[in-house]
## 1
Amino acid sequence: MSTVVLYLKIFWTFFKIGLFGFGGGYGMLSLIQNEVVENHQWISNSEFTDIVAVSQMTPGPIGINSATYVGFKAIENAGMTRTEAVCGSLLASFSVMLPSFILMLLISAFFMHYKDHKSVQTVLKWLRPVVVGMLAAAVLLLLNEENLGTFSADNLQLYVSIGLFALAFVATYYWKVGPIKVILLAGLFGGILYSIL
Amino acid sequence: MLLTLFITFFKIGLFTIGGGYAMIPLIEREVVERKGWISREDFLDLLAIAQSAPGVFAVNISIFIGYRMRKSIGSIFCALGTVLPSIIIILAIALFLGNYRDNRVVENVFKGIRPAVIALILTPTIRLASKAGLNKWTWWVPVVTALAIWWLGVSPVWIIFATILGAILYYILKLRKA
């Protein structure tokens, strides 16, 4: 596949992600995962999870962070040069922002007058439960062997992963621990435990 | 003025860790309190709109504020300021730490991180579910959506598209009846 075709695909994919990514950064993640991992297979499932982790620890919006990273990896994994990969990452970030520009400029001009209109409110009300489902799907899709370890009864990594998953959920949901702390602690734990074993 | 817009949002982009929602307090302090560019009421309206519009939340806000200050060119400077720190940092990571998987210790660290990250997505899912106004008529919507995407591999794009279309049809039918 020629570079131009791949660039066009990246543009179109991230334009779609920017256009249909409702519900903030996490809502966008399920779309990115669906397009980039499932449809195009530009990166693997565990690479995707790593990007989410890196995005949480580095500054900036997750949507932009992951677009930049995926744009780079998609070109690099296709066996092209690093310069071309940098262009790919810039293109992906630009494409994911383009629908925002078009929509927000339109909204600045018109939507302010109509935001309380019943039709707009109806659409927003209908979208909310759907966004919840999209997020739940992202969680289900990520609970796989690449992220947790092989699903077999004698695999220690699987049990450790399930424990870490449960603990991280309790920590963020009930104890309100920040995501950066959770990632750092889980990383430290994994780094020590798996290196000793 | 354009440079001030750019620098303000560059700072906001550089110092918020943890995604778009973490940016709100920073943007509020800079734009409402320090610079007085927009009022607090307008800022709340802006949040509601930026949240319900698709796309990157923080970018939507910066485009909106930039447009208010200096029309289209202002929105470009604000949006660039917001995303440049991310792009530079992520590119640096991709370029220089690209082969992290070859390092055994780093791979072990990520083996610990991956299950935790999934929990980090589960938490906002449940928080959002309690705010989505689910009742005995609508509880099945998230369930069917999740199963369609996870099990049947339906693209979320189609589901959002169908939902918007359904809501508009429902609204028109209700108007006709009234």
Note: The mean pLDDT of chain B is 85.
## 2
Amino acid sequence: MMGSSAVTQKGMSNMKQKFPGFVVVAMLVGIFGTSQIQANDLKDLFKGYLKNKIAPPVQEQPVTPATSEASAEKPAEQLLQALMGGNVSEQEEDRIGQQIAGNLLGAAPLVRDDGLQRYVNRVGRWVALQTERPDLNWHFGVIESDDLNAFAAPGGYIFLTKGLYQRLDSEAELAGVLGHEIGHVLRKHHLKLLQKSQGIAAIGGLLGRKLKNESEVLQNVIGNGAEVVARGLDKDAEYEADRIGVVLSARAGYDAYALPAVLAEIGHVAKNDTRVSLLFKTHPLPEDRLSHLSDAVTDALDALPEGQSGAGRFYRLR
Amino acid sequence: MNRVSQRVRSQVLLGVLGWHCLLLASSVFGMATPPQKTTQQVAIGSSAVMLKTDDLRASPDVKSPLLLRVEKGAQVRLLNSQSGWSQISNAGHTGWVRVLSVRKQGNEGIELSDLGELGKKPQGKVVAVAGTRGLDVQQLSLASYDPAEVERLRGYAVSRREAEQFAQAAGLHPREMSYFAAPNQ
């Protein structure tokens, strides 16, 4: 639904670049004469031209999420101020996450397997229920990529690649991976990264002069496309997410050692394999993550009754 | 539990297979074969290192008898793993330590899945690389918002109630556990 209006707008702006508006109107008058219907069309066109002259339309934004319509000036201002002040509401966090998720899906769409996607959402939501943010709008998805990686965006948008999913052996391992990503959302790691970015201050400078629409502000905050997910967090954030992943697996009734098993598995992939290059660029190496977990866990899991592996339930991809 | 040990076993097996493939490849390319490779095939288990000092126990249970302490950094053989525990041999003793206390070494550089593919298709590796869909920084930067995919994603969302029903049917019982503090570096 956004598509068609965007196309028209785009067509118009292309025209405007080539001819000044009044020339276009004059040309159309010449071509069509003054029959009743066309006269009305021309009147609208002229009105549109005048309106644009007085208040130029905001620059066309190719990445426009479904929920943001025009008249989004207030949210835009609020969003910017929230980001600058560090007090982003849950709703705003969701908007940011949705924009990142939509961009990421633009690069790698969801695997076309309803059974798989539903399964991953059930497991993910169950793990997320064991946290202090159980009622976020949690979304989980497996995306088309042979890479081994997983991503989290603010607000509860979590993805893992098909390549990583195929490496997993059990539901507990899936829960561990999702638990790690859920950890990033709980501690707002990516949100904090965005708040620290230079872009915020630069866009903030525009506030006094001209407000942009919300999605434009959003995209400016996020940067190019889904590049934000390729920006590494600091190592401590990754170690923290690993610790959370282990705890959440345990809380959800799974084998708490499943995440370490996945890390060990990834550690066996050749370091120069292109399928792990982004993962290893943005995360500490698996052996360092295992050492860190080892130091953090100590004997905390000794008293825990053995959890489920859920290997029998694990949804296997062909 | 069996699955984990199965995996360890299959990795050991694949490791051995891997060396064979390397031997084959090196003979094809006329390279000299490093002498230590023969010992790799004979040794039991895999080479591993202790990440921290831990107690070696007679069975995979904290209440089982203590055999000896194994120091951090010690080179051991990793024989088996099961939930939470790894069976190792060290200084003539065989026993169990916590799975996170020991890390397997070596085998890096050999892609297990590639070895699997080699069996299926003669030039499996080449084909696989040509067909891969990676996610690099450039692709991610150029990506644009896909509203249809977001709608699809929304369609898969699961309610709290549905998740609880799923867990109940699966016999998954929530347990209490505090988050771990960051270890002192």
Note: The beta strands of chain B are 46-50, 54-57, 66-70, 75-82, 85-90, 93-98, 102-104.
## 3
Amino acid sequence: MTALLEVKNLQVSVAEREILHGLTLTVNAGEVHAIMGPNGSGKSTLSHVIAGKPGYEVTGGEILFKGEDLLAMAPDVRAAKGVFLAFQYPVEIPGVATMTFLRTALNAQRKARGEAEFSTPDFLKKVREVAGSLGIPQEMLRRGVNVGFSGGEKKRNEVLQMALFQPSLCILDEMDSGLDIDALRIAADGVNALRSPDRAMVVITHYQRLLDYIVPDVVHVMSKGKVVKSGGKELALELEATGYAQYEDKAA
Amino acid sequence: MNVAVAKTDRVEAADETPFALARSRLPGSGAVADLRREAYDAFQRIGLPHRRIEDWKYTDLRALMREVLPLAAAPDAEALARAAAALKLHAIDGVRRLVLVDGVLAPSLSEFGDLEPKLSLRSLRDILAGGDAALQKELFGLDSNNPMIALNSAMMTDGVVIAVADGAKLTQPLHVVHIASGGAPAAVFTRSMLKLGNDSSATLVESYIAGEGAAAYQVHDSLVIAIGDRARLDHVRLVEDGREAFNITSSAIDVGSHAHFNTFGMATGALVSRYQAVINVAGEHSRVETNGVNLLNGKQHADTTLVMNHDVPHCASREVFRAVVDDRGHSVFQGRINVRQPAQHTDAKMMTRALLLSDDAEADNKPELEIFADDVTCGHGATTGALDESLLFYLRARGLPEKDAQSLLIQAFVGEAIESIADDSLRDLAIGAAARWLEARA
């Protein structure tokens, strides 16, 4: 069986400085992987490169998504194929109503896949249903995308999109940053509801706390642009006790 | 012999000015003809304005337009048919349509019947051709120191003269549509007038469109508006002329007391357009909102030049202007606010923002504030920038192709100005014009 995501010996530079030094990672459908590591270890760079953010130069290695060369695809093509990045800092887009944005994005993805566009009543019904389960008030959907949203609301809006678009690979970049425990629980419940045998998740986090709510199958430790250790969920607890220092030495 | 030939040449040259050629076809005689002659002389003293005239620094008509084309022929049946076809694409429901084809009122395409009470509609041609000397004089009252106004005064052939009596609240917007039918390249010269009585209200929409095959034509238009005390006027103008056309429009607006004037203008069409408006806030406790959008690409050039005169106390004015410029497009916004000494407690603000989509795009903003009153709130701001890369990436990461992501952000950028249109269907009309520009771009 082809892995959902295969990152092979990936080398990435930003402004001529190498950030990822040959990173390898395999994620199968149905699995939840956590990537942990200290600040500056390259976790967010990895998520950006998978999503196709400009400004990163891939100098070596490859990324295969369902066996296809992901790096050759434009960001919107990746999205239509089922790659979803939940942003660490979702942007505010004044003047674009959240509802308009959701419908435009979903229909753009469906069109790219050769599927029929959602009719407006079906779409509204679906959005209301998912928004309700995430505790997102209807009023928020009429506002500009993320405009005037709290940190927790922005993250819930990311989970809302994930639920609507039904991607096969979800990458959650520091979803816990800036969230209090209650907000974290609501967002995590939303994510857990999306766990499924044909979907994989990569949860990038600095702290073990998030993994109490989204329990991973595999934990990877990243340091200085490489995966330095992989293990089961107990690895996260071990890290919480010992810290990252030992791995920083190992990578060096 | 040689001398005599040279003389003859000069006389012939003089006779071939657009004014001389058109004279026999211009309505009005006697005093009207004299006023035309004076206006043409005023135009000729300066000619087409050029960049060394401060007010025209960014819009050098001598370089861009080069010459004034001859007066367009009156539309024949074929021209009217082409105009009717163009009109179909831009028709809006629930309005009273008043159509000018190649500068001539076209009753067959217009709705002059079943007028609401207290509404009167006349053609400029009729007024200039016969009677009412006072009204004729008023129609020539625009500032002929501006050469393009002077040219328009000399050559104006037709237009709609609208009067709304005291207390009348028009329920149906008036939609004046200027159509270039697509005949031989020529110039049209029109002037319309709207007088709103005290305690009245109306909505005026103006569209400039082109028929199939219309190329390098010229529109020279002008508008005279008087808004009575406690009256309200909502005004929308959409320039969707052909991509080789010129549109030079001047307006003069007098606002009474406790009145409200909301105006929105958008240029998505024409190769070169200039809208120059002088707004006189002449009655106390009045409010004026002017909003504008330029959406330009290719070699399009659009200039909005506004003069806001605050002569009396306790009035407010707002100017919100957005420009989106791609390719080698050029957007110009010149906004002048004059606050005269008696105009205490004036609250006047102007904000312009430009979005440049290419390295060769240009946007010039020239705010000018001249304030002689000491107890006022006045301000202006201007920004210029590119599309935000982080927003573009967010939209693309959600599945929007590059052009679609840009379009969504451009719509949001101009949205603030378009939102100022109070009427839902007119707002949709403006959104539709913006969407057409964006589609043509993709």
Note: Residues 89 and 209 of chain B are 10 Å apart (CA to CA).
## 4
Amino acid sequence: MTPEQRRHLIYAPLRIWLGLCILLGLTATYAYLPHVPIKPIISLLIAAAKGALIVLFFMQLRKAEAIVRLAALVGVIWASFLFLFSFADFLTR
Amino acid sequence: MSSDIIIHEPFETAARQKVAVPFGVWSFLATECLFFGGIFLFYAYARWHGGEAFSAGAKETDIWFGSANTFILMTSSLTMAIAERATKEGLVRLARWMLWATIGFGLAFLVVKGFEYRKDISEHLIPGPHFKLEQGPAAQFWAFYWTVTVTHAIHLTIGLGVVGRLLWIDRRGDLAPHATTAEGTALYWHLVDIVWVILYPLLYLVGRP
């Protein structure tokens, strides 16, 4: 294994994993802190950050072709329509 | 990629296959996004409608099991990412070890989940006649818990199957030319991890003090 391969194969994924572990520690700690605001929103934002790390680096969307990124984006956009239209109904009844 | 890849039907060139595989798998993952989106929509509605009574149900989940499994699954994503990159680089020995590690972590997740289910069942946390909490929003939380965790476990078991298939290809001695197969497998495995990453706060953190 060349030093370049070691960086790409081992160190780069390890750094992402370390970031995920730190975020896991953060979110679990925040959930137990007394008198802190907007706990559900913070925990979901941290989950989104973890998801972004996995999508961009482990799934390598950062370096993917435009058409592949488009396919990835479609799922999120359509799911957001699902939530948007459903709650547009629930909240205005 | 350091080695040539095997070209599958209907592709005529390796370059086309290298774009088509991630495009196809991501398109499938988009449907998964909608599939789980529907389940999450139930959670959002029940939480909004049930309020504190819904969150009270979440107080009964065991954060130790949930956190351990989050760590295990994130680590399996690490080994899967290394396995996929090693396959592309033709480092088959490293890829093989990492694929076995991924299967090991996947099985460990299911074992931990099994112990968690045993605890949940012994505490009567299944909505129905002997349910521990009040019927209504708390029961809806636990209906969500069972539905989504079993669905996730089925996805993970399928993931074990597709990772096992890569090891089967390796047994035939041609893992390196199947780099695009490894890429598609890795994408699916990572999605199963992401679903759990989103579930973790919804199931285990919502009910904390």
Note: Helices of chain A lie at 3-32, 39-58, 66-90.
